[in-house]
Amino acid sequence: MRYMLLVKTPPSAWEGWEGPVDGFERTIEFMGKLNAELTETGELIDAAGLADPTVGTTVRKRDDRVVIIDGPSPDGADVIGGYWVLDCDSFDRASEIAARVVAFDGVNSPDVIEVRPIMDANSGQEM
Amino acid sequence: MHIDQGVEDLLRDLAPQVLGALVRKFGHFDAAEDAVQEALLAAATQWPEEGVPENPKGWLIRVGYRRMTDQLRSEQSRREREDALAARAPRDAFLTPPPDATGGSDDTLILLFLCCHPSLTASSQIALTLRAVGGLTTEEIAKAFLVPDSTMGQRISRAKQRIASSGVPFRMPPAEERDERLDAVLHVLYLIFNEGYTATSGAALDRVELSSEAIRLTRVVHQLLPNDTEVAGLLALMLLINARREARTGPDGELIPLAEQDRGLWDQQAIAEGAKLVEDAMSRGDLGPYQLQAAIAALHDEAASHDETDWRQILALYGVLAQVSDNPMVTLNRAVAAAMVHGPEAGLRLLEQLDEDSRVVKHHRLAAVRAHLYEMAGDTEAAIEHYRQAARRTTSVPEQRYLEGKAARL
């Protein structure tokens, strides 16, 4: 079963970002090791960090018109900072991986990860 | 390349035996696999033109053996240990295996035990079994499980490394472990079957059909262990479930429940074979969960309609099954059978015990069965609520469509 691990961050976390600060290399190293391990176990399908939300746009419908605004949604909701797509044997296993990331105490490392099963479009059991 | 179907079948039967022979001889699982692939490739190109050799297995082992000694020799010379190799691998040992050698089929079984070794995760066991015993390519397995080739390749090579590093010898597990290890093999075969059977769409054109592959492998195990009643039971179960394959989905991949399936589409030949298998197995008196599930599937398959199904017998069998396996899914199915025999309230009462069971309390199937039983009882409101809850909980798009459709039509 496939799972998506979504790194959630408040928009404020991105403000005042001035590039890598001391100790960030430890976080990079941790992520690199983790991803190497998940590659080796054959669980990693994809993983990436996302660019600063101010670099992106938010596309939404307003009064039946499509409008595009710069940056994240202005309502101040959490933004996605990065993600993993994993193929794991169980939900518990996917959660365990997320827990390891959150437990890691490093500069700019994720504090909140949402674990969500990915819908399977091509199979189902008869009822 | 077009290979004659007969040759292809022959190669697939022989591949695990050849691999087994090489692993037994040299140990190196990884290198042995490469050697087998090369031998199979040579056979696939030469046999259609030159004809199948008199002793095809001996031919393949010979080619694989040569490839392997070449490879090991170059490695060894790099390590300057040629003497050790020469001493370990007497040249004539595998050059002319007698045609009636019995080791081959046992090798297939040993290989299965190895691929389903308890030190591997379920997904690794599955991948390695399909690769080493089923002879599928990494690309085929990746496609069947809808993961990138590189992900599947990693999974397989890691599994091989694990086996190599665990130092498990290439021989039958000791007698006291046999039952447990065989259970693991059967479980892996069942998972492979299920993965294929639950596929609702799927470009059958370019995806290996996993349920047929699982049936083929289980047939091999059944031939090797004809007296094992659970192996027979699992083969029967697969045949009896797979017989309904054509009827279980509609033209757009939508799920059709058992009660509404066109029974004219069921494969009568598979039903007859499965029913006979499970009947023979059960008459020997050593009951197990696969036989019981197969017996239940046979009762469904042999009924002229949903209402004419022998629900009493099915309920009794679920009762026995509940005693031999502690699985909440059994309780779910038992509740449906109880509802058919004693009415929906009896089924709903049985489900109450699952509200305390963390394995299933949030599972969509519990909500779905409850919805179904409320529908039977005429409590439309509760039925709609539970169908919607089940729809929200499932992670399968076809299931979600089915459950939402049920809620909408009530």
TrEMBL record, chain A:
Going by the entry's taxonomy, the superkingdom of the source organism is recorded as: Bacteria
Matching entries from Gene3D superfamilies are given as: Dimeric alpha+beta barrel (3.30.70.1060)
InterPro entries, per the entry: Dimeric_a/b-barrel, YCII
Q: Which SUPFAM superfamilies match?
A: Dimeric alpha+beta barrel (SSF54909)
Any idea where the YCII-related domain is?
A: 1-119
Say which family it is in.
Belongs to the YciI family.
Q: What is this protein called?
A: YciI family protein
Q: Which organism is it from?
A: Haloechinothrix salitolerans
